[in-house]
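**User:** You know discrete backbone vocabularies at least as well as I do. Would you mind producing a protein record, from residues through to fold? Write it directly below this note and I will take it from there.

**Assistant:**
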Amino acid sequence: MNSVKGLLAASVISIQNSCFIYPACQNCLSRLILDSRRFNCLKCGCTGEVKDASYRYRLSLKIADTSDLFDITVFGGCLDPFFGVTAENLQRYIQDFIQLSGETNAEASTGALVQAVETCFIGKRFIFGL
């Protein structure tokens, strides 16, 4: 991982995507391609069973300091304190909720979660390591 080159104090203007958890390759951290029972990493060729896939946070934000706008993406465990759980556990909670509620539209079920993330980040000021 690269060392921090500088710090930027900025406010979050918007969340750029509503999918902030992704299945990640344990070797290279790239997004995995999932089918019904297997996963495949296009970058390094790693394969396995979907039940063994790990998950990682990826939060794309539009931020502003006093003079500029920036598009940034925050990855990984540094988001654990904001969500209160690891991405792996949050994904498990989401899947359990969908199963228990009998919801057939997964996107509708996660709408409240997206709204909560927006409430927690939009309009707040953070110090970003670049």
Summary: The mean pLDDT is 90. Strands lie at 7-15, 21-24, 33-34, 38-40, 47-49, 54-64, 69-75, 125-129. The domain at 11-122 is CATH 2.40.50.140 (OB fold (Dihydrolipoamide Acetyltransferase, E2P)). The CA atoms of residues 60 and 73 lie 4 Å apart.
